[in-house]
Each structure stands twice: as C-alpha cells, then as structure tokens.
Amino acid sequence: MFTLLLGTSTISAGIRLATPILLAALGGALTFHANILNVAMEGFMLISAFFAVVGSYYTGSPWIGLLLAILSGALFSLLFGYLSINLKANHIVVGWAINVASWGTVAVLLQSFFGVRGAFFSEKIINFKNLEIPFIKSIPWVGGVISGYNIFTYTALILVVIFYIYLYYTKYGLRLRVTGEKIEAAQTAGVNVLSYFYFSVLMSGIMCGIAGASLSLSGLSMFTEEMSAGKGWIALAVVFFASGKPPLVLLASLLFGYADSLGIRLEAFNIPSQIIYMVPYILTLLMLLSMAKKQKIIT
Amino acid sequence: MKKFNLLEILKGQKFWHEITRYLLIFFVAILASSVFILFQGKNPIFALYILLREALLNKYGILRTIRWATPEIISGLAGAVSFRAGVFNIGLEGQLYFGGLAAAIVGYSITNLPAYIHIPVCLLAGAIAGGLFVALPAFLLLYYGINEIVSTLMLNYIAIFFCDYLVRNFLMLASYHGGQVPSVPNEVATPEIANSARLPYLFGIPSGFLIGLALCIIFFLYYKKTVRGYEADIVGLNKRFAAFSGIPATKTAFFAFIISGMIAGLSGAIEIIGAQHLFRSGFSASFGWDGVLVATIAKSNPIGVIFAGFFMGALKNGAMALERATSISRMIVVIIEGIFILFVTARFTLKYFVRRKKKEEG
C-alpha cells in the first residue's frame, strides 16, 4: 500500500505528469489576474507540441524544437489577443475557435510534414535528457523523488517563484492585478491597460509553448494528435483552483498529476481508477465553493 | 410591437446580409482548406466533389448526414438556449452523457412496454437526467456566483468518468446476469435496449431528426412570440437592465440553464435510442462540444441551429467518406469548422468598427 501511494515511481510519475499542467497554468495565472478567461490553452499547447517535434526532428536539437514551440505558442496567443482584446470578440468563443482550428491544423500538418495520420514515431525526434542531481540521487526515496527529471520540471519550479515575485512583489505585477480587478482604476492611475492585457496573453502563449514542448520532447520520441489530451483544460481548472496564486498553482498541478499517476497505477490492480481521476475536478469545484460568497438573488 | 423593435436595434441585423455573410465565410473556409489540401499534394476540387457527393448527393449519404446531424442540432439547440440567456453552458457533453445513460438504462431494463409509451419514457428519462445534472452548476451560479464556464467544464470530466465507472462496475455486469450477451464481448457497454425503445423511421426519415427539427421550431416561436422568450433575450443582452425593468433576471437565467441541460440530456437519449441502441463508454463523438460550436455558428438562433447542425453533420459524414476515398485527413473539416467560428465572431467586431466610425464621424 505504501509503495502504491507514496512509492518513488508513483510520485515521480505524478510530478512528470504535473509538469506541463504547471507550466501552462502559470501562464494562465497571468491571464486570470488580467481577468481574461483563457480557454485557448489547449490549442496553444497542441500546436506548440507539434512544432517542438518539427524543430527537433529537422535539426536534431531539442532546443530548436523548444524555440519553435515557444514561437508558435506566442503567435497563436497574439491572434487570440488581437481578436479578443482589440476586436473585443468574446474570449470564450475565440478561444474555442483557436482550439478547434489548431486541432485540425495539427492533424493536417502532421500528414503534410511526416505523411502519417494520428501519431508519428521517429528516433530522429531528439528529447531533452533527464538530469540527475549528484549526491541527492543516491539518497533512498528522496533521490528518486527529487532527482531525475528533465529541464522542464526544474524550470517550472523556478518559474513558480519568479511568477510569485512578479505578481506580488513588483509594481508591474500589482498593475497587472489592478488592471484585471478594476480596469477603470488602473486607467485612472495611468496604467497602459492594453499592454498589460497583451503581456498576460503573450506570456500565456509562451508558457503553453514550453508546456507543449515538454509534452512531446520528454522522452517519448513521438507525437500524437491527442497529445494535449485535455491538459489545457486541466490547467484552466488549476488556475481557478488556485485563484491565480503561483504557490497554489503548484499545489493544484501536483494534485492533478498525482491523481493521474495513481489512477494509472490502480488500473493495473483492477481497482476502478475513474473515481481517482474524478477527485481533482471535484476538489476544484469544492475549492471554488469555499471561496465563493453567498449571493443576493436578484429576482 | 415596440418591444421587438428594441430587440432589432440591439441586434441590428438584416436577413439577407446574414445569408451573404455566411456564404462569404463558407467561401473563405473552403479556400483556406483548399490551400491545406494543395499543401498535401492533393486535388482540392476532387476532394470537395467527394465530400459533397458522399454527404449530400445520394440517398444513403443524406441519411448518414441526417444521422450525424441529429445530435449536433439538438445539442446545438441546448447551447443556444443557454447562450441566449447569457449563460455559457459548456457542459453539454456531460449532460449528454447522463441523458444517454439514463435513456439506455430505461431502454434495456424495461421490456414489457408498448413502443408508444417506452420511447417517450426513455426521452423523458434522458431529459430529466440532463436537467438534474445541470441543476448543480445552476445552483452554484445562482447562490454562490460561481462561474458557470468553469463549473460546467469540471462537471464534463466528472460526468464522463462517472458514467464510465457506473458502466464498468454495475451495468456491464448486469448484461451478463440479465441473459443478453453483449454483441462485442468485454466491450464497456450496457446491454442493448429493447426493441420497443428504439426510435422508428417516419416516412423514411429517422424520427430523432424530426424531433430535433420540431424542437428548434418550437424554440424559435418561443423566442419570437412569447413574453418569456423575449425576457430571456433581454436577460442575455443585459442582466442588470433586465432586472431594473422588472424581469426576474436570475430566475430567467436559471430556468434557461436547466432547460439547456434538459435538451442536452435529450440529445444524448436520442443518440442512444435512435442510433447506437446501447450506451458505450465514451459513446459521444464530441457531440456536446460540437453543440457549443453549432450554437456559436448559428449565433444562438434556433432556426440557424438547424442549418449549422446539418452543416456540421454533413461535414462529419463527408469527412469520413473523404478519408476512405482519398488519403486526405478528415481533420481538414475541423479546420473549416474553426475558420467558420473565427469569422462568425469576427463579424461582431466588424459591426463594432462600423459603429465606432459612425460615432467619430458625427
């Protein structure tokens, strides 16, 4: 039972599964504070996961793949920003359209680039290597839990701190939060509201780009049409769970990752894993409920 | 009469302009997808011909298109009903799952009813299941102001996992004890529904499709001719204005939310008793998600939903045929869908610019 719940492999798999969610949700936290409901993260992640594979396959360098992923994520986020901020189209509808369009685009491009449908395997997709931390890796249990992830996991953890400092200890973070909370106040104080909106959307695109690359360049040497598999939506759930606070984002991502990993493990024992998969979503609802205030009903 | 004029000013649209605009968008979408097909080294005109031939130009093609259009139209209507009242119910997929499961259970567990009672009971079960499931986010929205987009999104996943759990652990076993052996062994599915629960064909057309059409027309009249429908529209346009005008705004939105969930449940029920005849885990070919798209493309107009749903059904059917006949990916139609929605939304923005320009000029 202990090895099942807290064994090294369960926990480290959970952390691996949490990494793309965490990366995307950190970007989503910025849009959350700017009061933009970003439902397009799924699409950003999928398209950048694809371009990460393209970059890695053709150049043999995962770094070029990462760069392409970030660029494509950024490009799509600017499209989202232009339509929803400048043209004032409904965020949800635009986000939805981007998800659908990127899903189709990726599937069609997959066929045009590599001549395959659905999934693409190749030895030529070079992945990021796992990093072993000296000394720590030889400690039993702790070593297995802390050491041995690739660059994305460690970057994500560092970014949690950076995003937290940015949001709560710099004037720029304060301005971003004010922009989202009370746009009139921000404008009166002379904040360039538009640039903060764009910054948050662009950061979300970039973070989804990194998250997408972490999906496709983390050791599988493959790409599938369903690579993002709802992770963008989970990231949105995480953002709401944490109400945009980076430390809570970390906690919630780990929770989703852990539930996912535990579910996979339990499946091997013929224990219904569906209930475990449901738990994070239920917790998100309860979390929202705990923060909500009882409303006066206008009838 | 004055009330309707106000609505027209708020929406500012003329029928023929709309039609031309949609045709233009269609043209752009076809052009863009042609570029993608050319990119794959294939002939776009041939692809288009195959798509059209298989979806619309022969009898079986049309029947298949109708089969796929049915759930799209009904769940599109579910989306439209909630969007019109300003509620973004994107949990259609989850409500559809519960509706489908409820209809399947009623369909297979009762065997001694005549069809004219059994079928309505199944449909009712589906609608009630969808309505009950949507009551949760509706209450959360009403009492706690919890964003319905997030809550319905969460509940989609909860519903899909929960239905899977129920089927795997309780209903699948029932099929082995109940005598009826499932057609595919070890398939995660309920037993097949009784013959009396299956939707018949009327005049050679699946009756589920006719139910969908009738519902759309009923809701069209509801919004055009009744005070309640008009009030729902006002609440959707501006909740505060509606409340100040003496319309029970929250109640109206709540009511629309519940109705929307019930229609989504009904859509799942019709899919089960009209087409699949048993509940498979993961039975929905993203009908609920498509419902959001259909409602968006139709701009929440119930009559528009018929056309948009039929369009999506034709695309879905044609795309499968296209993939069988050529090596072009069926995902090409997903690009068409994406472009459609983008342009339909960008429409609002064009109007926004025109209005702003007019203001600047005088």
Secondary-structure topology with pairs:
The complex is a heterodimer of chains A (299) and B (362).
Chain A: H1 2-6, H2 8-33, H3 41-59, H4 62-86, H5 91-114, E1 119-121, H6 142-146, H7 151-169, H8 171-181, H9 183-188, H10 193-216, E2 222-224, H11 231-241, H12 246-268, H13 274-291
Antiparallel strand pairs in A: 1-2
Chain B: H1 2-11, H2 15-39, H3 44-55, H4 59-84, H5 92-109, H6 115-144, H7 148-177, E1 201-202, E2 205-206, H8 207-225, H9 227-237, H10 239-244, H11 249-276, H12 287-297, H13 302-325, H14 332-361
What does this structure look like?
- The complex is a heterodimer of chains A (299) and B (362).
- Chain A contains 13 helices and two strands, in the order H-H-H-H-H-E-H-H-H-H-H-E-H-H-H.
- Chain A is mainly alpha-helical.
- In chain A, strands 1-2 form a two-stranded antiparallel sheet.
- Chain A is globular, with a radius of gyration of 20 Å.
- The model of chain A has no long low-confidence stretch (mean pLDDT 83).
- With 362 residues, chain B is mainly alpha-helical.
- In chain B, helix 2 crosses helix 14 and helix 4 crosses helix 12.
- Chain B contains 14 helices and two strands.
- Chain B has a two-stranded antiparallel ribbon with strand order 1-2.
- At the A-B interface, helix 5, helix 11 and helix 13 of A face helix 6, helix 7, helix 11, helix 12 and helix 14 of B.
